[in-house]
Amino acid sequence: MSGCSVPKSPRGPSIYTKSCRREEGDMFEPTLAIVVPCYNEEEVLPETIRRLRELREQLIEEQLISSNSALLFVDDGSCDDTWKIIYKASLRHPEVKGLKLAHNAGHQNALLAGLFAAKRHADCLISIDADLQDDVAAIREFVQKFREGYDIVYGVRRRRDADTWFKRHTAQGFYRLMKAFGVDIVYNHADYRLMSRRAVDALEQFGEVNLFLRGIVPLLGFRSATVYYDRKERPAGKTKYPLKKMIAFALDGVTSFSVTPIRFISLVGFLSFVVSLMFGAYFLFLKWVGHTETGWTSLITSIWLLGGLQLMALGLIGEYIGKIYKETKRRPRYIIDLDLWNWPLPQRLSPAAPPEEGGAAEWPRS
Q: Environment class of residue 80 by beta-carbon count within 10 Å: exposed (0-12), middle (13-18) or buried (19+)?
């Protein structure tokens, strides 16, 4: 080993020296935790569990990850049988873990809850949505990049043919808008990424209530890489991100990382003031030379235009004030109801043997 020492509980190859990585990289089998936030995904979840379990077994056989690697499914306050499916799978398969939030905290908070709950058990963590539109086969490349010394690996969509025309073009508009407002995010990257344990430790230091992970993760500054993949069609179920949620998500991202909209409104206000002065001077000149302009149409139009701009400005300022209000109250991002990985089994859960496939099972209810 030429003097290289390996810690008993490595936090990832990034803590090794370059010479250690060259000599011991092939022997290092990191413990991987795959975190899957779920909200009303009963239709696709059984297939998601099956595919991720198969991939985990393959990676263990290839000696890319440790046999202690696990899958953590986070139920974000679902109204269907999502938690029942997770709980039954955890009884049958020890590598499947479950985390249940007490209420619907939102995708980003559910993802954070899973990362923070799993990091004590893993050297690296991968977040992926439950809908299987992100290619699970790319996880193999994620792990290989981690073994090469990268703390963060971004999954970037090469093509989005499986998405609708509307979804593709609104997504492109979102990334262009973020770039125009100076927000540093990875183009065509959602929340499919790998993070080392120390990267998740650093992420936990960010205390904002409104966390926009696509903007915060690049701020960590750790060594990063990119893995490209093709986005697939959803095998079952419907998207949980309708237009209303996409608009709210985009607005949250912009207002969390940029004051450019406020400056833009200020610029519009200044230009409106200058134009008003010019028109005022013009009408005074007409009156001085003896011409009068009734101009009711132009007057009403200008009033409505300026009134609309003022309401937009107030709404935008209110959005920032609302964020300040939420941050000052310091409410928790989420409340955990059940943690089948880190907490002892509650008495209200049945200690019975794992049920057969498709059979009845007891599971916790809120």
A: middle
Neighbouring residues of 105: CB distance < 8 A, sequence distance ≥ 6: 76, 77, 113, 333, 334, 335
- Rounded CA-CA distance 236/141 in Å is 26
Alpha-helical regions (H) of 162-295: 165-180, 197-203, 213-216, 243-257, 260-288
* CATH number assigned to the domain comprising residue 197: 3.90.550.10
| Residue 115 falls inside a structural domain | yes
Do 297 and 192 lie in one domain? The reply is no
Name the nearest CA neighbour of 122 among 70, 192, 59: 70
| Band of residue 10 on the pLDDT scale cut at 50, 70, 90 | very low
* Total number of domains constituting the chain: 2
**Residue in the structure block whose two tokens are 């440790």:** 66
Q: For 226-260, what is each residue's pLDDT tens digit?
A: 999 988 876 665 665 566 666 666 666 666 666 66
Q: Which helix (H) or strand (E) holds 86?
A: helix 82-92
Domain limits at 313?
A: 260-329
Q: What pLDDT is attached to residue 245?
A: 63
